[in-house]
Fold this sequence. Notes:
alpha+beta, Agglutinin, subunit A, 5-stranded antiparallel β-sheet, 16 helices, disordered C terminus, binds 2-acetamido-2-deoxy-beta-D-glucopyranose
Amino acid sequence: MDSTEWSVISILLIFTVIPSCLSLDTIRPNQPLRDDGHDILVSSRKIFALGFFSPGNVSHNRYVGVWYNQVPNQTVVWVANRDNPVNDTSGLLTIDGNGGLVIYGKDRNVPLWSANVTLSSPNSSVVKLLDTGNLVLLEDEVSQNRLWEGFDYPTDTMLPYMKLGLNRRSGLNRFLTSWKSQGDPGTGNCSYGMNPSGFPQLILYKGTKTWWRGGPLSGMPMAITARPFIFNSTVENNQDELTIMYGVISDSSLTKTVLLGSGIIQRTVWNDRWTSIWSAPAGPCDYFGNCGPNSNCDPSNPSIFECTCLPGYEPKSPADWNLKDGSGGCVIKTGVSMCGNGEGFVKLEYVNIPESSMARVNMNLSLKACKEECLRDCSCTAYSIANDGNESRKVRGCVTWHGDLMDVRNLSNVRAYFFVRVNSTVLALFAKNSNGSVSKNGKLAISLASVLVFFLVIFFVHWLVKKNRKDKEIENNYVFRVATLPTCFQNTSADLDDESRINSELIPFFDLRTIAAATNNFSFSNKLGAGGFGSVYKGVLSNGNEVAVKRLSKNSGQGIEEFKNEVELIANLQHRNLVRIIGCCVKDEEKMLIYEYLPNKSLDFFIFNEKKRSLLDWTRRFEIICGIARGLLYLHQDSRLRIIHRDLKASNVLLDASMNPKISDFGMARIFKGDQNEANTNRVVGTYGYMSPEYAMEGLFSVKSDVYSFGILVLEIITGRKNTGYYHEEYPNSNLVGHVWNLWREGTALEIVDSSLGKSYLVNEVVRCFQIALLCVQDSATDRPTMSAVLVMLSNDAALATPREPAFVFKRTYTGGDPSTITTEGAKSYNDVTCTIVEAR
Ligand SMILES: *[C@@H]1O[C@H](CO)[C@@H](O)[C@H](O)[C@H]1NC(C)=O
Ligand SMILES: *[C@@H]1O[C@H](CO)[C@@H](O)[C@H](O)[C@H]1NC(C)=O
Ligand SMILES: *[C@@H]1O[C@H](CO)[C@@H](O)[C@H](O)[C@H]1NC(C)=O
Ligand SMILES: *[C@@H]1O[C@H](CO)[C@@H](O)[C@H](O)[C@H]1NC(C)=O
Ligand SMILES: *[C@@H]1O[C@H](CO)[C@@H](O)[C@H](O)[C@H]1NC(C)=O
Ligand SMILES: *[C@@H]1O[C@H](CO)[C@@H](O)[C@H](O)[C@H]1NC(C)=O
Ligand SMILES: *[C@@H]1O[C@H](CO)[C@@H](O)[C@H](O)[C@H]1NC(C)=O
Ligand SMILES: *[C@@H]1O[C@H](CO)[C@@H](O)[C@H](O)[C@H]1NC(C)=O
Ligand SMILES: *[C@@H]1O[C@H](CO)[C@@H](O)[C@H](O)[C@H]1NC(C)=O
Ligand SMILES: *[C@@H]1O[C@H](CO)[C@@H](O)[C@H](O)[C@H]1NC(C)=O
Ligand SMILES: *[C@@H]1O[C@H](CO)[C@@H](O)[C@H](O)[C@H]1NC(C)=O
Ligand SMILES: *[C@@H]1O[C@H](CO)[C@@H](O)[C@H](O)[C@H]1NC(C)=O
């Protein structure tokens, strides 16, 4: 036999063997999924997997479930036959006329579980697992028409892009329900979802008891606990649906919200392990009815009693109240009836509005009409604005309560409010307290401001909804950019096969003459600056676009290798916090990179300049910190490649016209392949003061060396001082990091905050950034957080770890100019480090 025959045979062999031992991406009528220990269905980007499993591997019961494909400990997020397990490994998940998608045990005639769908053409139906974790049954592969989807039948986990709530057309209400126990995914006692009656709200039930209230559609605490750059949520309330859904902004963060059997709802993020970033109920006030009816629960001062009666009410049982038992709640003191006796309303702010399943809603009434309506109806005890989740509707509705007001509690960060009915005496009392303090002009200013805020909110929500629609469309149709220009290292534009067209984001090739013309023949007046590897010029292309041209000097340290490296790297990177490459140019000795032009120069130009630094207020600086973190996270995780920048510093962070940071200069970056986590180099390149100890001393670099540089950068942004060349009389032996560390331990870190910030910063935020920065510069690389953890820390208020002592490398008295970039060859130990100053900016 000749070799071609052999290969034909082996191909045939492969095709006959594969289906039983490789992961599938589709289930077809003739291609079921068996419980044979091999078969799994994997989503296209390999994020989720589906197959048979036994929870915790403790019982013989087999369930069909969805879990994260790449998380080492199987984390199940969805279960099909949760109440009907297969009791051995005979299980089979298949498509048939018996209910669409079905699970059989030994008995292949009666399904243990079925999706209850009648298929019109069973032979063409397919089942796919999407990258959102949604299992879908499609009518056929062409129409993509969804007959059934797992997201409509959630178990205990809410995933991003999964909707909870009511489908008004089918009547289906999607709830989370807890597992029975860790080893049993059966339907447990707790549930969480939308209660559509009265004024809709999210409620967590334990058994039949209301356990915690997730809040009404407006001001839902769940939606707003984190800063919007990790999560955003959308509420839909229209004739089709009444739902809530949340999305993630950074794709790299695996996140889920789980209802635990103990009645706790918890949101976790994956970074090496599942970390909780939010959970509820979290304090006594969160438990429904902790303070009984008609009282407010205020957790702000835990040492005093959290319950207070609403205005005009008094404790039902003063004795219990004195013993700090508020469960009896409050009642109205008998007096003159509150019906046509000069009664009115007192406004309560920053509170969760009362439980509203019995409330009445009228979307046609304005707030003013609402007040009149409530005043007229003597049974009405309170009223509020009914925001139905559609902020683009300018007429907002009216919600009124009749009877006891339950579960009012303080929400410090939500500006929700309602008005409670009080008698004339109480009204006068409250009116006196609030009268006179606000002048007429003040009132006018406030109402103007609230109108402005209102429109901003409308605009924002509108934008979110629109964006959200767009993303939905993209879910199924992956869009690739098709470039028509030749790549840098391609001699001709011809013969690119489709594969490479898709895989590399092609970048245009510029002619040397074009670039020379654009930069005025590399004139001195066009020069923006000079770096270690050449000069940077401003250019204007014939179409008027401004560009920055990095012209590598012929004898620069950056050889063709680094140049290729940078081009290949950056050509594949697209992120709004990374500088964008527009093209390149190679001609004989000349090598040039053409970037987008950023008018605001680099970060060091601002933060280290006496006059310019006041242009960056704290909010701006915080946004810059977050932007750099996002850019770095993208390099480390999101870009499909794992890229270590290796030279992150203030001068490599450029600012665009609206001061958004963009990381630049990838000449020294390294790509890590596959599972590689750490590498060793005998050519240490980087910048004095920003290099992690393990990198500077042993040449070891990893994502954690970038984290270290990030930490230094954050300290510099807060303090406006350089880590290198930093000197303080009281601490002559420490650099900036050392000084901050000393102050931090003494609890006086705020002393060193850039004085140009004045008192305009948020103390909490600054302290938090100090702590995050100190966590990033810890001596041991394993102690330092990953960038995804850093982003999580930046975006919520959960407690942070206590930093350990940072690395004090490179503290030497320095007498020369400003040392920036060093290159050390073969550095093996601290003593061997030889510093060659290549660049002085
Ligand atoms: C159960 O066993 C499977 C296969 O041996 C393994 O992949 C999975 O991680 C185990 N699950 C748990 C929770 O230990
Ligand atoms: C599994 O369940 C079937 C009925 O569904 C029953 O006949 C069989 O005995 C069970 N097997 C075991 C090992 O429990
Ligand atoms: C299918 O219908 C049966 C009987 O009506 C029901 O018990 C089962 O829960 C349904 N399955 C699903 C997935 O809805
Ligand atoms: C579906 O396929 C089965 C077996 O492959 C065949 O017997 C049956 O006629 C097909 N049904 C339709 C509606 O095409
Ligand atoms: C669920 O509730 C029932 C009845 O109240 C109780 O017997 C059972 O132990 C509860 N199960 C769990 C897992 O809490
Ligand atoms: C959240 O924001 C991301 C990125 O901006 C967007 O893709 C997603 O659709 C948004 N999700 C929701 C639920 O609005
Ligand atoms: C995986 O599970 C084992 C055993 O339950 C546990 O010790 C380990 O910490 C878990 N690993 C992660 C990353 O959660
Ligand atoms: C109004 O209520 C307060 C306290 O709840 C009470 O002291 C007062 O007598 C009442 N006034 C009238 C006019 O009923
Ligand atoms: C709690 O709510 C009450 C009633 O509106 C309000 O007076 C108080 O200022 C709030 N406390 C906090 C800490 O927001
Ligand atoms: C609200 O107004 C719409 C049209 O403006 C009307 O059809 C509807 O009946 C009104 N609803 C109530 C409760 O008044
Ligand atoms: C919101 O209200 C506006 C105006 O009434 C309407 O045009 C729009 O369709 C509504 N949006 C949704 C999602 O219901
Ligand atoms: C509060 O001020 C308004 C107008 O300034 C006045 O009409 C009203 O009598 C004042 N009320 C009290 C209780 O002083």
